[in-house]
Amino acid sequence: MRTSMKALLAATLLATCSLAQAAELTVMTSGGFTAAYKELGPQYAAKSGDTLVTVLGPSMGKAPEAIPNRLARGEHADVVIMVGYALDELIRQGKVDPSSRVELADSRIGMVVKQGQAKPAIGTPDELKKTLLAARSVGYSDSASGVYIEKELYKKLGIQDQLAPKSTMVERVPVASQVAQGTYELGFQQVAELLPVPGVTYVGKIPESLQSVTRFAAGIPKAAEHPAEAKQFLQYLASPQVQPAVQATGLDSVAR
Q: N or C end of the chain, less CB within 10 A?
């Protein structure tokens, strides 16, 4: 009887300690890494006992939901996951601990067409150029990938004058959702943001020689309430064992 009671007390003490050690982490995450986070976050929470409170917002821009603007208003975060150069700016401003920066994944630009449409050839610069010139309409995001297409890609291909009248920067909603509705014939965005959207066919990435690669990274704000637990979470997101899940969302693992 005494042995059973001791075992029960030990189990109760262990459970109490586990609960005491568990933390509620507020995670601000943006854009292209969100699909991977939504897959890996619950797995980590179940394993660690920590609770993840997710706050979505873009890495930059004037929108009040943007991560830098949230932090500027004093909103709390234990982890921020965002475009690498936007994270660097927060580090420069003294809002994120520079030693906490973790490289997570690279994101490349891809293209979709409406489901049921034939997949056009875009494997080489010449094929991409011909496909763009033949398209009736083109949509791209209002994030870094769309700015690159509008300001640099068209210029590299020598077709900015021909494409400008039939190209649109899509604001606030996924580009693929507009392609699915038939608003645009071709849609460009980071691959990880195209794949989750129904009603479209993923064609592929644009040629590597024309790519604009976006690095996603994460860090811990200096005002974080649970920096030790946040560090463990970031180590998990960057660990080798989760890379197949990261790659399945359309991201590319960082060479380490």
A: N
Tell me which H or E stretch contains 246: helix 243-248
Listed in sequence order, the DSSP H helices in 93-250 are 125-134, 144-148, 154-157, 160-163, 175-180, 191-194, 227-237, 243-248
DSSP secondary structure string, 222-240? TT-S-HHHHHHHHHHHTSG
SS3 state of residue 201: strand
Predicted local distance difference test score (pLDDT) of residue 4: 53
Q: What is the pLDDT of residue 18?
A: 43
Q: How far apart are CA 81 and CA 89, in angstroms?
A: 13
Distance of alpha carbon 109 from alpha carbon 162, whole angstroms: 21
Fold of 2-106+215-253: D-Maltodextrin-Binding Protein; domain 2 (3.40.190)
Which CATH code for domain 109-210? 3.40.190.10
Average pLDDT per 10 consecutive residues for the chain, totaling 256 residues: 46 41 92 91 96 92 89 97 95 98 97 97 98 98 89 97 97 93 97 95 98 96 97 97 96 89
Q: Which residues is 105 bridged to in the sheet?
A: 216, 253
Nearest to 168 by CA among 180, 145, 154, 184: 184
A 10 A CB-CB count for 83 gives 23
Provide the whole-model pTM: 0.80
Same fold flag, 2-106+215-253 and 109-210: yes
For residue 105 the two structure tokens come to: 């994944």
Q: Which residues pair with 191 in a beta bridge?
A: none
Strand pairing category for 109-114 and 79-83: unpaired
- The rounded Cα 183 to chain-centroid distance in angstroms is 25
